[in-house]
Amino acid sequence: MDDQVSLATRAAWLSYVRRLTQGEIADRLGVSRVKVHRLISLAEELGLVSVHIAGRPAECLKLEDGLIDRHGLGFCRVVPAIDEQDQPFEALGAEGAAYLSRYLETDGAKVIGVSHGRTLAALVNRLPRIAAPETKFVSLLGSLTRKSSANPFDVVQRLADKTGGEGYFMPVPMAADSLGDKAVMLSQKSVQAVLALAHRATLCLVGIGELGPQAHMLQTGVLTRGEIDDLRAKGAVGDLVGQFLDTEGRRVASEVNDRALSVGLDDLKGRRVVAIAGGAVKADAITAALMSGMVTDLIIDESAAVAMAARRGARPPPRRQRETS
Known about the structure:
- Keywords: DNA-binding, Transcription, Transcription regulation.
- Residues 57-307 form the Sugar-binding domain.
- Belongs to the SorC transcriptional regulatory family.
- The protein has two domains: 1-54, Winged helix-like DNA-binding domain superfamily/Winged helix DNA-binding domain (Arc Repressor Mutant, subunit A, Orthogonal Bundle); 69-312, 3-Layer(aba) Sandwich (Rossmann fold), CATH 3.40.50.
- 44% of the residues lie in helices and 13% in strands.
- The chain is built from 14 helices and ten strands.
- Strands 1-10-9-5-2-3-4 form a seven-stranded parallel β-sheet, sandwiched between helices.
- α2 (22-29) crosses α3 (33-45) and α13 packs across α14 (302-312).
- The protein is globular.
- The two termini are 35 Å apart.
- Mean pLDDT is 87; it is low at 319-325.
């Protein structure tokens, strides 16, 4: 019932505050027009509709609306911040699991690309068992790390286990030790087959990394502190599918980027890409990912969204909007 009340609140806010039609609300929420009508009726019955919609959810809705308008997103969820000191993995995981569940319930065979990170691991934890035997889950970047926590192989395999689908992982590290090593690894047929499948992904689930002391790639031993410092010196603020970006969403010129074993940023063009990340510490990294033009859908927490709004100030609108097919 709590999920229905939350959805009813969103529908009511979009109807009464944003003045969207029921068709527009249906597109925004990913439900039918009949469902929208019922949700608005429920909001009215529960007394949620007055002169304004009060409470923290309304604040999140305003943040969502601003992000959608600014970055041309097809979907955005801002989950309420419960404790600003707490890492929002569980709340983001729950919202991400709901998003993926809705997608898996649609008709047709699917290929879903998966990157890495603790938030995606939390998504799998919250995902109920869903029968989707025709679905293929594939790593978007190298699956081998020095530490096993939240690596792509683990996430892909658990998604396959929960859905009855098939999992495909890239049997190489996230980054090669040298460009020569990368060339050798990419020449392997097993790697080429996984990359070919990743290029067919219709949905990509991606995390967004930052470059602070708790950076996922630093904690898992993918990169050294020296490499992180070098990336920051070159203007990098975060990564998307293993590619490090500056504040404007541009790929920085770095050998670390060149050594990455992953799909390229350009490979994400024209695809449905949902980024899931949170925490005020990731505000710059999330903004960079959005500025890249590769993210179509976004799930973040309130602390990140508020920090992004505070940092934005007089920054001009994004330099480009991406087109999706």
